[in-house]
Amino acid sequence: MDDTDQRTVMLVWTGTHYSSIGGPNDEAISGHRLYGKGLEDVVWIGEVSNSELVAMLEKQNSVHPQHDSRRFADLVHHVVLAKEQVIEVVARDLEVRRIEGSRQEAAVRALF
Q1: How far apart are the first and last CA of the chain?
Q2: pLDDT tier at 1, thresholds 50, 70, 90
Q3: Is 49 left (phi over 0), alpha (psi -120 to 50) or beta?
């Protein structure tokens, strides 16, 4: 499906608890730990249901004396597939914005 809107796409996460950017690239994506759990059906961005990563983050934080597992209940694990890397973000919210200009110009505009 072609996207006729040529403005830059900006993904903005808020309440971020975890993020990573790294391999595998698109040619080795079948080696990703989530590939057999639905990642094979993702074209660009997906949401992980019953995320083991979110569970691990909650367990990791459980040693804190003021730990409250409810703080982790509304976190969402997103996976973004790029040509050369996989981006994973665990956050409360994701907003998709369309901004005029190049990627650099859009990044600056998004800050204001």
Answers
A1: 32
A2: low
A3: beta
